[in-house]
Protein 1
Amino acid sequence: MSKKNKSIKLSIDQLDPSAPPEHESTKTGHTFFQRDFGLLDYINDVIFIIDEAGHFKFINKVSEERTGIPTDALIGLSYLDLMEPRYHDFARNSFETAIKGEAGPAFEMEWLAGSGETITVEVNWTTLYDGGNAVGVLGALRDVTERKNAQEALGKARDELEMRVKERTEDLQEANDLLKEQINERIRAEEKLRESEQKYRGLFENSADAIFIVDIETGIILNANQQAAQLTGHPHQKLVGMHQSRLHPGERAEYYKDKFQELIKNQLSFDLEAEVAKKDGTIIPVFISSGLVTLQRKKVVQEIFRDISKEKMIADLKGELETKKLVNRAKAIIAKHYRINDSDAMRMLQKESRRQSRKLKEVARAVISSKFILE
């Protein structure tokens, strides 16, 4: 039981003695209200007693402080006189429930205090008995404005939180949708890339690599297969007798001579990405796998040239795809940050790329990693 209810219970016990004097009426209850209720003046809430007809018979001194109305002016008035009409029906039903001896719920209402401000009060009341007969109602009125404001503030905070959660959920849903679209786009791009790779693998697996047999001492090509002729554009008879360094662009001839001598000196095999200069001047990227082998009891160098033009192309496509994704992500970040469209965001990226003399992909990656936001 709360402290307030204990106070009300104490007052009721003192007001409803178990053996009332014989000269007091046990039927009408009129002499009941002639008792001294001064003890109720020491309760901090507004305490009042109402008879069966709903008229005030007692109001403690606290009420005068809260309402600014002398207590004597309230005696005899109906409890409805102190309420706004909008509360009458509920208050009347609650009072009638209490006067019948049944427990009624507390209710809240707005009230004009003596200070002139509108406050929220909570009204509780319970039946008063005299000799077993209900003679009135003991009520308590408490200022719950702070509690009400706290509840409203809590409700407002809850509503704001729910709104933020909803907004955040919508943002996440939008981001999720965008991510799904990016994933789908990536899947489509990877499928196209896969198709290209599969097509390339099929073509490659059905063709032979270019193979050159080179003299270990002179570097002169001793033999070459048909695929070598096709790769270089030189006929087989032209390739035989040619120095192996001439297979590559002229400006890189010395580099390939040194690599060949390194192979001979260390008696090791090596793999190398290189370029082949075709007869018509076209540069072909190749992967070279070289090693020492013995043919007809003679040690020679076997060089297997694999055309990796398509692989290079695929790698370039992957790089372009990666760059495009980075740029798109960076554009989205900049557009959201500055509330601009994609075109303006792209121009900002390009401008920053030129200013820093850095690749667009590098600037985009810096934006994504939050190292800086373009000014």
Note: The chain has three domains: 3-143, 207-307, 312-368.
Protein 2
Amino acid sequence: MKKYLYEKISPQTAIAILKKKGLEINEQQAKEILELLYTLAILEVEQAMKKP
């Protein structure tokens, strides 16, 4: 898994946020979800910067 220098949300925080919404996940699942979200955010920013 890549480590992004600007990661602000820890897996424990993600677990707590999702638990409040009724979704139970473990630490590995939280890490995978956060990795996906960071990757999607990077792709979106790159695409937005390419638009004329």
Note: Residues 27-50 form the longest helix (24 residues).
